[in-house]
Design goal:
single chain; Rossmann fold; two-stranded antiparallel ribbon; alpha/beta; 15% strand; globular; 10 helices; seven-stranded mixed β-sheet; 43% helix
Length: 279
């Protein structure tokens, strides 16, 4: 039996229980595993090298005219406190995401300008490329489930030579001149429906490979996979603001996730997957 060591990079309330789950999910090798990850602030860092926030939404907001940024801030002031408090309903999230996506169209944002921003200003979290490497070599199917936009993720993945098998995220529409002209409402992914989207694809992965390794940076990301016993949920936690929230946050965190990874790099996850490959 392979005993999985948990380095100090991983935090959890019961290390022996976590080790037992690692052994059950990863100890049989990679043939039963599929890999799912969030995008913003999971595959990317929370801040860029200049100290600016990094996410799909921050990218778009910086390109908006002043009146649209003011509306974006107004919406943020309404809905973000609900999200932080764990009180954002699916209906609230739908209204917030739809309103923000509509702002992209109203702002007359040109896609080619955004592509330059994506390529220049959204860095990769250390260890992210290396996570996808053992997935590719071991044939582990991979999916990105994101409340950002698919178009941004595709450009970013191309730049960093990352090749997920599937991306579930909102698709933008463009007019003949390359301006954002709307968004595909049937593809909408927001923070509260991640467990509902892409069910056909994700369920087919689960049927063939019953064990999931999931990475996320919000409590809602835990809902992407259903079966808690067959899922290793890892929370990517490099935001210092959370450390000031007291025990309540971490109580809620470990009600949803098995491990919290705090060193800013996904390298420890790479080691776990490589260990499974050697099993």
């Amino acid at each position: 039996m392979k005993i999985y060591g948990l380095t100090a990079d991983f935090v959890c309330p019961d290390r022996e229980k976590a080790k037992a789950k690692l052994e059950r999910i990863l100890g049989g090798g990679t043939s039963g595993i599929h890999f799912i990850t969030d995008f913003d602030r999971t595959m990317t860092p929370f801040f860029d090298n200049r100290g600016q926030l990094v996410s799909t939404w921050d990218l778009f907001t910086r390109k908006m005219p002043a009146d649209m940024r003011a509306e974006d801030n107004r919406l943020y002031g309404i809905y973000r406190p609900l999200e932080v408090a764990g009180k954002l309903t699916p209906e609230d999230a739908l209204k917030w995401w739809a309103a923000n996506l509509d702002l992209f169209e109203k702002s007359r944002l040109k896609w080619i300008d955004l592509v330059r921003e994506i390529e220049n200003d959204i860095p990769v979290r250390p260890g992210t490329k290396e996570v996808f490497a053992p997935c590719g070599s071991e044939g582990i199917p991979t999916a990105i489930v994101s409340a950002g936009t698919r178009d941004v993720i595709e450009v970013w993945c191309h730049k960093f030579d990352i090749h997920p098998n599937h991306i579930l995220s909102t698709k933008l529409n463009f007019d003949e001149r390359g301006y954002i002209s709307g968004w595909d409402r049937g593809s909408l992914v927001h923070i509260r429906n991640k467990g509902e989207v892409g069910k056909t694809y994700l369920e087919s992965m689960s049927k063939e490979r019953p064990y999931a390794v999931l990475l996320g940076d919000s409590l809602d990301d835990a809902a992407i996979v259903d079966d808690g016993e067959n899922a290793l949920r890892i929370y990517v936690d490099d935001r210092q603001e959370k450390k000031a929230k007291g025990d309540d946050f971490y109580d809620r965190l470990f009600d949803n996730f098995d491990l919290a990874l705090q060193n800013g790099s996904l390298a420890p996850v790479v080691d776990l997957l490589r260990g499974a490959g050697a099993a």
